[in-house]
Amino acid sequence: MATTPKWIMVGGEGPESYNQNSSYQRALLEAAKEKMSKAISAKLSLDLISDRFSVADFGCASGPNTFVAVQNIIDAVEDKYRKETGQNPVEDIEFQVLFNDFTTNDFNTLFQSLPAGRRYYSSGVPGSFFERVLPKESFHIGVINYAFHFTSKIPKGITDRDSPLWNRDMHCTGFNEAVKKAYLDQYSADTKILLDARADELVPGGLMLLFGSCLRDGVKMSETSKGIVLDAVGASLNDLAQQGVIEQDKVDSFSTPLYFAEEGELKQIIEENGRFTIEAFEDIIHAKGEFTLDPKVLAVSCRASFGTFLSQHFGEQVFTKVFDLIEAKLSQDLPRLLNAKPGMQYLIVLRKKN
Question: Distance between CA atoms of 30 and 34, rounded to whole angstroms?
Answer without folding.
Answer: 8
